[in-house]
Amino acid sequence: MTAVGRARWEQHFASGHGFRRADELELRRLTEAAPPHPGARALDVGCGLGAYAAALAGLGYRTLAVDRADAAVAATRDRYADAEPRLQVQRLDFEDAAAVAAALPSAAFDLITMRLVLAFMADKPTVAQRVRDLLAPGGAWVVTTPLASNLPEARRHIGLTREDIGILTEEWPEGRWYDLDGALRCFVLRTGTRP
Ligand SMILES: C[S@@+](CC[C@H](N)C(=O)[O-])C[C@H]1O[C@@H](n2cnc3c(N)ncnc32)[C@H](O)[C@@H]1O
After folding, report:
1. Fewer CB under 10 Å: which end of the chain, C or N?
2. Do you know which PANTHER family this protein is assigned to (predicted)?
3. What domains can be seen in the chain, in order of their start residue?
4. What average pLDDT score do residues 12-33 get?
């Protein structure tokens, strides 16, 4: 895995670049996989320019969007100011255990999304455990990603390897996946059902 540092993302945003936007099909599949219920809370990790987090808020989730890049947080706040208070934005490095523990309550989120993000995180088993700690009973972790095996060699670092997928999918009572346009795969992993 090639680490893509924070400075590189800051540079990406500063040069006005965005990312592939979620289309109607992607959002429809998401609501089928993780239907929002009244009061449902979502956490979008690595929100980038905020379009996906804003879409989650639009679907009815009380959404917290976090990103470790200042430029991403600023852009999301600026672009989606009218979505507050349903959409909140905060700077947070999800790989920083102490920062996550200080900022986020345990067992509080019904949905945690990582869209085009997990491949860039170094310690995936720790990230997966952190997600389990933050999810409420019955909550879902939705990971949307390219697969490394479908990418040209120079871009494989932006996708998940077979080994990564093994790590991602183990230790969940329920899991499934589906494919989206643009060679993206979406994994839906669920904690035990609500009591
Ligand atoms: C390829 S972009 C995807 C943005 C957005 N999810 C989307 O689909 O448009 C990856 C984002 O993840 C963020 N990111 C990477 N590692 C992170 C971490 N450890 N904690 C929080 N954000 C992170 C980057 O700053 C960047 O905004």
Report:
1. C
2. TRANS-ACONITATE 2-METHYLTRANSFERASE-RELATED
3. 6-190 (3.40.50.150)
4. 82
